[in-house]
Amino acid sequence: MLSFRREFSFELTSEREEIMQMVMEKLTHEMISDEIGYYKLPTSSLAHLQRLESIDTSKYEQIVIIGVGGSSLGIKAIDSILRPFTPDAKEILFFENSDPITITETLTKIDQEKALFFIISKSGSTIETTSIFKRVISTCKLDLDGEDAKRIFAITDKGSSLSEFAQHHGIHEFNIPDNVGGRFSVLSAVGVVPLQIAGYDMQTLLGGAGSFVNSFFENQEQHLLEKACYMYENSKKQSINVLFSYADCLENLTKWYVQLWGESLGKVDVNKNRVGLTPIGIIGAVDQHSFLQLVIEGPQDKSVTFINIEDFENDLSVPDISLHSIEKTNFINNQSFNTLINAQCEATAQSVIEAGVAVDKISLDKVTPQNIGAMIVYYELLTSLIGAMLRVNTYNQPGVELGKVILYKNLQK
Amino acid sequence: MLSFRREFSFELTSEREEIMQMVMEKLTHEMISDEIGYYKLPTSSLAHLQRLESIDTSKYEQIVIIGVGGSSLGIKAIDSILRPFTPDAKEILFFENSDPITITETLTKIDQEKALFFIISKSGSTIETTSIFKRVISTCKLDLDGEDAKRIFAITDKGSSLSEFAQHHGIHEFNIPDNVGGRFSVLSAVGVVPLQIAGYDMQTLLGGAGSFVNSFFENQEQHLLEKACYMYENSKKQSINVLFSYADCLENLTKWYVQLWGESLGKVDVNKNRVGLTPIGIIGAVDQHSFLQLVIEGPQDKSVTFINIEDFENDLSVPDISLHSIEKTNFINNQSFNTLINAQCEATAQSVIEAGVAVDKISLDKVTPQNIGAMIVYYELLTSLIGAMLRVNTYNQPGVELGKVILYKNLQK
What we know:
Mean pLDDT of chain A: 97
CATH class of the largest domain in chain A: Alpha Beta
Helix content of chain A: 40-55%
Largest interface: A-B, 119 and 118 residues
Oligomer: homodimer
CATH superfamily of the largest domain in chain A: Glucose-6-phosphate isomerase like protein, domain 1
Structural class of chain A: alpha/beta
Number of strands of chain A: 12
C-alpha cells in the first residue's frame, strides 16, 4: 500500500477545478483514443508474460542488457528495488554508456555460457547500443546465424531496423507499442520481458500498476490532480522538485524519475515559452549531510517529495554498546536501523516544512511488486498531468536531436 | 594537465576587477591568517604520509570506512576515479547510510581477518557513524581492549569525543585541523590516510593539489576568478549549475561536488537574503538520454560545466561488423569508444551552446593523481570565491541542525 501526505496548502477553487477537469479529460482522451499507450500497458503487457511461458530460459543464469535511457533506467530501477527482497533473482549486467572503462569491466563479468542478451532500442539504431552490441558479439563470439540467435532478445518498435535485423536472424523479438515513448516504456516489453526472466514477479507488479491507473481514471486519486495543479501553478517560483528517497535501493528509481520528469516537461510550450520543472534525486539519510543545507537556507525555489519505506523487513539493530566518551549516542541503542532511518526521514521533513518549503511524502508500507508498479504509474500520471497543464507535448524530445546531428557530422569527417 | 575552455562571454570591467581583487584578498587573508585551513592541506598532510610509514598495514587487504558526508564522499570520489588505473588497490567498503538493507549487505562483505576499520567523524558523534560502528564492533566481535585496537583508525577533531574514545583504547588517531570543515577535508587525514593505505599515490595527488593552489595565489588562474564572477553575477538567473561528466568513474566526484557546492553556498547572506546555486551532477553519454532535453529547451536557468577525459588509456573499439538492416551505424566502426565518448561530449556541448546556455569545459588529458588533486582544489577554490562574492559564510552549515534536534527529541520519547 502507498499512502500520501501533503504539507503544503492547496485550496480547491472553481478555477482550479476547471483546470483539473480539463486535463483529466485530456488524459482520458489520450487513453481511450490510443493516442498515448502507456495507460494500457498493465493489461496489454500480460501477453508478453504468456508468450514467455513457451520460451525456455531456465538454463541461463545471467541477463545482459544493452540499452540506454528509457531502455535501461526503468529496468535498473525495478531490479535495484526488488533485488534485496528477491534473493534468487538472476544477475543482471547493464551496458548503457559508451565509457570504454565501464564497457571493458562489464565485458569481463559476462558468463559466456550462461548469459542471455537483450538489445533494447525503440528506434533500433541508438548509437551507444549498436556500438556496444557489436563489441559484445565480437568479444563473446556470438554466432548470429547459429544457436546463439536463440539466446538474444531484441526489444524494439515494429518495423525498426533492429526489428528487421532480428527477423533476418530469427532472434526473439518483442515490440514496444508505437504509442509508448521510451521513458514511459518500463511496463512494456522493455521492462517486463527481461525482469520476468530474471525472476521478478512482473504479473503482480503490472497488477499494482493497473489498479492505480484504474483508480485514477475513476477519480479516486484526487490528491494526484491537486499535487499536479500545485506544481503547475508554482512551476516558475518552485521550479525544482527534489525527490528525497530514504532507502539506497530507491536511488535508481530517482534516476528513472529524472529522465521522466526532465525529458517530458522541459519543453517549449504552445505559446513558444520555455517551461519545465527541474528534477533532482537525492538519498536519505546520507544527503542530509549534503544537499539539505541548500534546501533549508537557500533560495525558496524548491519543493521536496519524501519517499520512505515503513517496513524494510529487516530487524538489524544498534547493539547496546556504550562507547567510552561517546555515551551521548546511547539513546539510539537497541533501536532498529529501520526505526532510525524512518525517524531521520520524518525529522528532516519536519525541519524542511519549518523552513517554509512545500513538502509531500509518499510512504510504502513495504517493498512489494504491487507497490512498485503503483509508484511507477503514479509518477507517469503525475508527469502527464503537469505536462497537460503546462501545455507542452509531454511525449516527444526534440531538443536532443541537434547533438546527434553534430556527432554524426563530426565523426563522418 | 587540466585545460579550461569557456563558451560564455565575460568582459573584464573595472567593477568586476574590483570584486575579483576583493575576494582574492579575502581568500589570501583566510589562508595567511589560518582562519581557513584547507589551502595548506597539500603541504601539511604530508606529515600523515610520513607517520604511516611507521604503521605496518601490509597484512590487511580490505579497508572499511564508516563515515558520512564529508567523511566519505571525497574518499569515494578519489577511489572511484583512480581504481580503474590502480589495479592493485585494496578493496574499500563504505558504510555511510542508516539503511538497514545496505548495512546488512555490507556487513557480509567484511573480511573479518583482513579488514582495517576507519571511523571518521569530525564532530566525533555523528549518529549514523557511531550507530554503524557499534554494529560493526558487535558483528565482527572486535575487542577494543585487545589486539583489534591496532587495526582501528579514528579520524576526528582534536579533543572530540571520538578522540577521547581512541585515546582510551589506544586506537590509531589522526586529526582533522579545526579550521578545515568536513566538506573541505578530503585532502586532510580523512582522505589521505585510508587512500594511502589502500595503495593510492597520495603524495602525487597532494602535489597536484598544491601546485594548483600555489598557481592560484600567484594569480595565474585568472580564468577561475572570472568564472566565479560570472556565476556570482548570474546566480539568480542561472541558479542551477550542471556538472556534466563524461566518464562513469567521475560519478562520485559529482556527488562530492554537490555537497561542496550545496552546503557551502546555500545560505542566508549578510543582508539576510537567501542565496545559493543549485548543483546537479549528471553523467555523459547516458544522461544525453535523460536530462539533456530540459537543458536545451527548458527554462534558461542553468549553466553547464562539461568534464571530459581525453585519454582513457583504453583502446577498446567498435568492431568492424555490419549488422543486417542497421548498416547506417557503420560510420562508427573501427573507432575507439574513447573517441566516441569524447565526440559525444563535444557534440552535446555544441548543441547546448547553440541553445544559448552558458557552457564551460574542463578537460583532463589523462586520469592521474596529479590531475585529480588539481580538480579537487579547483572546485574548493571556486566555491570559496563564489561564497565570498555572495557574502555568505562558506564554511558553516547552520541549516542542518534543526533536523538533528527534532530527531533527538523524537527518539528520546
